[in-house]
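Work Package 3 (structural annotation) set out to generate three-dimensional models for the target panel prioritized at the project kickoff. During this period the team completed the workflow that converts sequence records into discrete structure tokens, so that structures can be stored uniformly alongside our sequence database. As a representative example, we reproduce one entry of 168 residues exactly as it appears in the project archive.
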Amino acid sequence: MKNFEFEYEGQKLWYSRSLACNLIIFCKFNDTSIKVLVHKRGQGCEFNKGLWNVQGGFIDFDESAKECAIRETWEEVGIKIDKTKVRFFTLDTEPRGKRQTMVASYYAIFTEDEINDWVFSTEHSEKGEVEEIAWVNINDLDNLNWVYGQDRMINKLFLTIEEKLNNI
């Protein structure tokens, strides 16, 4: 399918492949364990119910990819992340499936002391979108069923930043 222009609410817009953005949040806990903040997709999700994923979703108009990742984290787990903590990881542009969505992945690293006051909430997410929020040990990713192979993406990122995580 070719890109095309269309009109919406009196504005001319351009239709093309979409961009999803996600934010992989790592925390080094005081016991030296390294965990990733993830959530289980709830019954309100259109597809892939019951699978685990990192926080993410589709970009809105007039929003940067980083802003999208931060907003999706707020909506899905109720945590506001300072944009100065967020770093770019990768952009996947391979056309796959019907949607052919491109994915921009970001990450942030925290210590347990930095997250002590975090209170998770799904009040800003779509109804039933999030079933469960959890910190999962980096060594236990294989024990969960993941959407879109996100466990492989998390592991790839972890190998890239492992030294940084171990030295904080």
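DSSP finds three helices and nine strands in the chain.
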